[in-house]
Design goal:
This protein has helices at about 60-70, 85-95, 100-110, 115-130, 140-150, 180-185, 195-205, 225, 235-250, 265-275, 285-290, 325-330, 340-350, 355-360, and strands spanning about 1-5, 10, 20, 35-40, 40-45, 50, 70, 75, 135, 155-160, 190-195, 210-215, 255-260, 280-285, 300, 315, 365. It is an alpha/beta fold. The protein is globular.
Length: about 375
C-alpha cells in the first residue's frame, strides 16, 4: 500500500503499457499454436469478441466477423434496433467535424425508441447467415427487452455497462436482481464491466458464463475525466483472474471466463491481457479502423451519446485495411493495428506456448 497523505492509502496498479511479457527458454512454430476458445457449448477459432458498438458492429460486420471464426456482439440499444435503415444517419454523423455538434446530433438520433421487432429482425438476420448470435443490453434496459432477446434465439446474452455490479441499490426503482435473472434464462450470459476482485466474485456467483473486465473501449470512453473512475487494465484483469480461481474452488469446479474489455487498441495489448489471466478479449478500437466499419472512420460508445452526461467525444480513425486484414493480415502497418490473430499466435509461439490457457502462466515484468 502507498500512503497518499496521512488519511488515505492506495494500491499500486498497472496498465498494459506498464508491463511486458517475458519469453521462456523455448520457442514454437506459430503453425503449432492453437487459439481455439470454448465457452459454454461453442468453440471459436480465436479468443476475440467484437464489441457491441455501433461504430464497429452492424448486422453485416457481425456476420463477417462470425464467419471468420469469432464472436460478434450487436448493440441492441443502438441505431440498428431504433431505425429500419440507419445508414443515412451514420453517414450524416461522419460528415460532422465539430465534436459538440456531433454529440448533440448523436443525442437526438439515439433518443428514438428501441423497437422490439427490429431486435428480432437483426438477430434473425445474423442467425440465418449461419454464425453464432450475441446481443448486448445495458443493465437499465435488460428487464424490458430480455424476453424479446431470448425469444429471438441468441447464443449469448451480454449485459454490458460502464460499471456493473451484482448488488445495485436504489430507492427510486426496482433494481435488476442479476442472480435471479440469469438463472431464469435458458441462454448463457456474459456480464460486466467490473474491475475488482470482490465485484467479479459477486458477478460470478450470479451464474454468469463470462465476466467482462474493464470499462469498455478506452479510445471512446472518458469516464476517468468526467467521473474520476478508472482501474488500469493489467491490474484489473489479474484481480478478476484471482476471483475466477477462488470461485472455481468455492463452486466445486464451475469455470467462469474472464474477458478483457478495454485498453485493447493494439495486438500487444491483447497478448498482455491473456498473460494477465484473461481467457478472451473484447475488441473495438482495432475494428473501427476497418474499411467496412459502420462508423466511417469514427468510433464511439454509448457514453458519447448519453442524454444527460455524455462522456467522451468520438474518436477519429483512418481506415487501415479491410476487416479480414485487421484480423488475419497481411499487415502493412508496424504498430499492432492489423493481423490481430496472427500477432497473438506469434506471441504464444515466441514464448513457447501452444494453448491460450497455458499462456496465462507466462512471466511478466513491470517496467
Amino acid at each position: 500500500m502507498i500512503e497518499i497523505g496521512r488519511a488515505k492509502r492506495a494500491t499500486q496498479v498497472y496498465g498494459f503499457d506498464d508491463i511486458a511479457i517475458v519469453p521462456t527458454r523455448r520457442t514454437r512454430t506459430p503453425t503449432d499454436v492453437s487459439l481455439d476458445w470454448t465457452i459454454d457449448a461453442l468453440t471459436f477459432d480465436f479468443p476475440l469478441l467484437a464489441a457491441p458498438m455501433d461504430s464497429v458492429m452492424s448486422p453485416a460486420t457481425a456476420i463477417a466477423f462470425g464467419k471468420m471464426g469469432g464472436l460478434a456482439v450487436l448493440n441492441l440499444e443502438g441505431v440498428w434496433t431504433r431505425y429500419e435503415d440507419p445508414e443515412p444517419l451514420l453517414a450524416e454523423l461522419a460528415d460532422l467535424d465539430d465534436p459538440a455538434t456531433a454529440t448533440r446530433r448523436m443525442q437526438e438520433i439515439y433518443s428514438a425508441p428501441i423497437q422490439a421487432e427490429l431486435i428480432t429482425e437483426r438477430m434473425k438476420q445474423i442467425r440465418d447467415a449461419g454464425v453464432p448470435v450475441a446481443g448486448a443490453l445495458s443493465p437499465q434496459r435488460t428487464r424490458e427487452f430480455a424476453p424479446v432477446v431470448e425469444k429471438a434465439g441468441v447464443d449469448f446474452f451480454v449485459i454490458r455497462g460502464t460499471t456493473v455490479s451484482a448488488e445495485h441499490v436504489s430507492t427510486s426503482e426496482e433494481p435488476l436482481n442479476l442472480k435471479d435473472f440469469i438463472y431464469s434464462l435458458d441462454v448463457p450470459v456474459i456480464v460486466g464491466g467490473c474491475a475488482t476482485y470482490q465485484a467479479a466474485l459477486h458477478l460470478m456467483r450470479t451464474g454468469a458464463a463470462g465476466v467482462l473486465v474493464g470499462f469498455g473501449g478506452a479510445a471512446t470512453r472518458k469516464t476517468r475525466n468526467v467521473l474520476g473512475v478508472e482501474v488500469p487494465m493489467a491490474s484489473a484483469v489479474a484481480d478478476v483472474a484471482a476471483a475466477r480461481r477462488d470461485y472455481l474452488d468455492e463452486s466445486g469446479g464451475r469455470y467462469v471466463h474472464v474477458i478483457a474489455d478495454g485498453g485493447l487498441g493494439r495486438s500487444g495489448d491483447i497478448a498482455k491481457a491473456i498473460a494477465c489471466g484473461a481467457d478472451a478479449a473484447m475488441v473495438a478500437t482495432p475494428l473501427a479502423r476497418a474499411a467496412e466499419a459502420p462508423g466511417h472512420g469514427y468510433h464511439w460508445g454509448p457514453e458519447a451519446w448519453h442524454p444527460r452526461l455524455p462522456r467522451g467525444e468520438r474518436a477519429t480513425f483512418g481506415p487501415v485495411g479491410s476487416l479480414e486484414e485487421i484480423m488475419f493480415g497481411p499487415s502493412h502497418t508496424p504498430d499492432g493495428t492489423m493481423n490481430l490473430v496472427g500477432a497473438l499466435r506469434k506471441a504464444l509461439a515466441t514464448c513457447g506456448y501452444t494453448e491460450v490457457k497455458e499462456f496465462q502462466r507466462v512471466e511478466i515484468v513491470v517496467h
